[in-house]
Each structure stands twice: as C-alpha cells, then as structure tokens.
C-alpha cells in the first residue's frame, strides 16, 4: 500500500495544497489510517492527503528520497503547494528532499518525533520553509537533552516538546490527537 491518496471531495476556496506524509522506517502505512483520515476530515476534505512508505523497490534512504521526488513530479500538479509531514526517519527524508529539489513549493513541514542528527538540521537555519519540530518527552529514539540543545542552538525555531505523553509510535494510539494538532499548526498556512 504505497502512496494512497485520500482525494478531494469538495471544491476548495483555498489555494491548491496537498498534504504529503512520509512515514518512519520501516513504515507500515496501514498503521497511519486513523491519522490520515483525521487529517483529511478535519480539513473538510478540501485537500488531498497522500502517504508514502519506504517501498517501491527502493533500497536505502537515498533511493527512498529519489522515489518520493519522482512521485511528486509525476503525480502532483505543477504549482501545488505542499505541506510535508514526516515521522521518525521520514523527517530526515523530507529535509533531504527539500535540499535535493529546492523547487518544491513547500509552505510548511512538520517533523514528528524526528530522528535526525544535528548535521541534517543545517537546513533548518537556511530554509525559507516554515518547519515545526515536535519531540517526545519520553522518546527513547531521541533524548530530551537533544531537544534542549537544538532549542538552544535555534532559539527562533518552532521546536516543541510534547507535554501530552504521546509516544514515538504515535499512530498506534494517538493518531487522531496528533492529526488534530497538525491541523491547528498548519491551518493559517492553507488560507489564500
């Protein structure tokens, strides 16, 4: 189940936007069903919501990035603004995609429980794209002190620490709650 779309069911008075979600590794798209449906429904079915896993015969992170960029070029109409949402290693892939293809029209990118090293964060301070980083307070993949260091190094960044007890495997039990938070964070970026 690679790259399923939740189609637009109504005409949108807003600008042409697509939400694209890049899952962690290994990303089982089926676990994201509630998360995706909540995003789509909460946004009033006005925007297509698409998800991508690491399949498609791609080996390694570079292969996944290339596959995703080809998919976007072939299936997303030119001029479409993108909201990119990454989870876990999907955050790294999104940051790299924006580096590889600066022509992508990304209006905002949301990084959920990112497992990226400081090297990948250089794009954060050089990017014109609005980035939101959401770290887990009890995430075993990324310690809290790393969040604190990044917050110190990028004081103007939108770097958040979870206060709701959401765990790294968010799609298992809090997909709806996280989708609602994302809609709150991106809503103003979707207006014309």
Automatic annotation (TrEMBL):
Q: Which domain of life is it from?
A: Eukaryota
The protein's Enzyme Commission number:
3.1.1.13
Q: Which UniProt keywords apply?
A: Hydrolase, Lipid droplet
What does the record list as coiled-coil region(s)? none
Assign the protein's first listed, main location to one coarse class. other
Q: Which GO terms describe its biological process?
A: lipid storage
Q: Which GO-annotated molecular functions does the record name?
A: sterol ester esterase activity
Reactions accelerated catalytically: a cholesterol ester + H2O = cholesterol + a fatty acid + H(+)
One GO location term (cellular component): lipid droplet
UniProt keyword Oxidoreductase, yes or no: no
Q: Name the enzyme's class.
A: hydrolase
Q: Kindly list the places in or outside the cell where this protein is found, as annotated in its UniProt entry.
A: Lipid droplet
Instruction: State the family it belongs to.
Output: Belongs to the AB hydrolase superfamily. LDAH family.
What's the protein here called?
A: Lipid droplet-associated hydrolase
């Amino acid at each position: 189940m690679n790259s399923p779309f939740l189609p637009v069911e109504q005409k949108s008075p807003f600008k042409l936007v697509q939400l694209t979600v890049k899952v962690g590794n290994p990303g089982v798209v089926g676990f994201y069903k509630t998360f995706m449906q909540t995003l789509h429904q909460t946004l009033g079915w006005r925007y297509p919501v698409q998800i991508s896993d690491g399949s498609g015969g791609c080996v390694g992170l570079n292969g996944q990035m290339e596959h995703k960029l080809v998919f976007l070029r072939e299936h997303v109409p030119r001029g479409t603004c993108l909201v990119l949402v990454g989870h876990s290693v999907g955050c790294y892939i999104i940051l790299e995609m924006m580096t590889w293809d600066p022509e992508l029209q990304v209006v905002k990118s949301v990084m959920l429980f990112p497992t990226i090293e400081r090297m990948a964060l250089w794009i954060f301070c050089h990017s014109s794209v609005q980035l939101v980083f959401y770290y887990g307070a009890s995430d075993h993949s990324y310690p809290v002190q790393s969040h604190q260091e990044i917050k110190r190094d990028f004081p103007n960044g939108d770097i958040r620490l979870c206060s709701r007890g959401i765990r790294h495997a968010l799609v298992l039990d809090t997909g709806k709650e996280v989708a609602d938070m994302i809609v709150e964070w991106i809503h103003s970026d979707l207006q014309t």
